[in-house]
Amino acid sequence: MSKELELEINRLKKLNLLFEESNKVAKIGVWEVDVINHQLFWSKTTKLIHGVPNDYIPSLSAALNFYKPGKSSQLIKEAVEQAIQKFQPYDIEVELLRKDGSTCWVRAKGSPEVHNGQCVRLFGTFQDIQEQKEKEFELIDKELKMAAIFNNNIDALFLTNPIDGSILKANKAASEMFGYTEAEFQQIGRNGIIDLTDSKISSILKERVQEKQITTDLIGIKKDGTKFPIRVSSGIFMDSQGHAQASTCIIDMTEIVHYQKQVSETARKFKGIFDSAFQFIGFLTPDGVLTEANNSAIEFAGLKPADVIGKKFWDCHWWTISDKTQNELKASIEKAAKGEFIQYEVEILGANNKTTTILFNLKPLFNEKNEVYSIIPEGRLIQDIVDTRKELISKNNELASFATIVSHDLKEPLRMVSQFLAKLEQKYSGALDDKARLYIYYAVDGAKRMSKMIDELLNFSRISEKDKTFESIRVDRLIDDILQGFKQIIEENNIKIEIGVLPEVLAIRTAFKILLTNLIGNAIKYRKKDGLPVIKINCHEETNDWLFTIQDNGIGMEKEHHEKIFQLFSRLHTRTEYEGTGIGLATCKKIVELHYGKIWVDSTLEKGSTFFFTIKKNINV
Ligand code: ADP
Questions:
Q1: Per residue in 82-99, pLDDT tens?
Q2: Which of 18, 28, 274, 507 is the residue whose CA sits 20 to 30 A from 369?
């Protein structure tokens, strides 16, 4: 062999090697079929793609079995047949079934070589496109997911061209919201669904270009022309080809706007009530900072909101009347912050340092964790009530001392009348006829009744706010003591007394004794002439009070009398039927009220009566 030929062969070998190498990198294998002699040639890369070793010798029939049964196998057979018979080249994507059973996507290309109207040779390439295919599938997958998200979103979504405002895509929710089909949206574009009279639109579009993202409230227009409030969020992004696109989400705000209107309407009404309320009202943080106060409170002190809002409440003008007042408020706020409801009467400072008494309370507000998150301070002007009360107390005191003096003064001449009548009876009884003795008897009886009345009136007038000394009293012992006084009448009339469990209470001893004595005395007095009298005395504990009941099965009374019997001198019977003065129940009412309670009766004529009264359990003595 000549040197040149040798060199040329080496060059060709190198070139072939280079070709093989580059094919290997591109994963392209070469093949060739001698149709006449039924011989097949596979390049190294072709063998690699088929997953067979280098020394594998492929046969024509075996080669066709390297395709996944079904679509791929069918496709390649048809393509080869067409190439041989109709001389048509092919370029298809099929799935190979490799030696080890794994699959791999390939691009199979084949071209026929025709001689004298017959295909003599078929040659072509295999390219491993598995990676490419995977990416393609992944992309399809992503696109499907995106489409699902896009189509099924409950908000209206649009894909638009930010430059001309044309709508490229719109989802189902968008169609439902505006009433257009996707094709219609594409025709009318962005401008067809938004109220363009809104002056801020151009600035919003500019802002979107600068910021790439905007959210704004606009007015949308439906296909039927209805205008409705919408919230638009829109962003600009670049697609894979570098074209700007806008994705826009639209929410129908009709309901939200309606709800917001309602909320602000309620807030407006609340503010109206808050500011125009006669009483002083506000809000405090649990540590005592005033966050809000109504006009009444601020104007009363002749201040401006800035003078008090944000300050500790006790440092505000109203409370600066004295250190004591400030300290009391501070301590009360601390208690309210722990959940206690506080109420007390206090003198505060108004405009021009004028003092006024208010009924003040602190009401804690709790969150769902039962913690105090705010306190409502509230004050009512009660100066009038305080003045009237003072006046009433002084009038009552005057009346009481008047009653005491008058009763004392009346008692003395009454005693004289009784004494001398008795003397008249003793000394001149022989000289008096029956008529005269009867007159003396009536006179003595009248004097006795008058004396009793004076005693009861004295009792009534002595019960006053003045000497309210509360002490602990065992009610069972007190009842025993009272019943001792009625021993004789109880025994003589066979009266059954049933006593329940009775507590120890805080009460004014003498007054409380008069109260129970009067009620038990009445239950005994107003018994029925026939039948067995039964009196039941009980007590029930309530949240803030003790509730006492004195029940009898006596003569009872009609409903129309239930209230008036508590008035002074009110009686339902004549003196001849039942002895009495009509002062007893009025005294009971006064006593119960001294104990911050109430008294009432439930009674049925001929069946009996139950007297109820309450007294406050916790009296700050
Ligand atoms: P009195 O001195 O007349 O008993 P009270 O003030 O104690 O005066 O009672 C007023 C009136 O109420 C009595 O006159 C009587 O008609 C009626 N009353 C009081 N207690 C009873 C009772 N337990 N049963 C029926 N009536 C009663």
A1: 999 999 999 999 999 988
A2: 274
